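Hi there,

I know you've been waiting on this one. I reran it after we fixed the sequence typo, so this is the corrected version. Both the input and the resulting structure follow.
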Amino acid sequence: MQTVQFMRNKSQRRSSIDPPEKNTTGISKVTAHRYHDFSAGIRLYNFKGKSSRLHGHNYRIHFYCNAPSNCSENLVDFSDIKKYLCNWLEENWDHRFLVWDKDPWASKLKAIDSEGTVIIQFNPTSENIAQYLLDIIGPQQLITSPLKLYKVVVQETVKCSAIAELRA
């Protein structure tokens, strides 16, 4: 992957109309990144600590995609990431309560709020959410798209995040 150096003063910056410098190594990787914010409640089952209580987060999910290597013009239309991935989050998890199907409270929470409770097949840790979005939702949602999701970062706070990334 190429490293981008940031210039500190204006005299060192290239003009926006200058053509990009030619890659002489022959190896490069260009990716597209878009993030999406949503809010959800969770409870971590069998967890020792505050997160075993009913609570919520204002999540920021970062999606990293690339397109087929034969794309010569625009790599990715960023609205495609929104259309396929961000909209899925909005429709399925935003302002909902995510609860593991193994949690004994799952059926009780579903009975209290059937539309707002989403029963999922994993304990809703940030790590598990990242892995699920990468392994299940990404391929499912992008099946008709040239995009490929290869990395997901789930920020549950500004200081804490989990990363799931496909192995090279």
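Quick highlight: The chain has three helices and six strands.

Best,
R. S.
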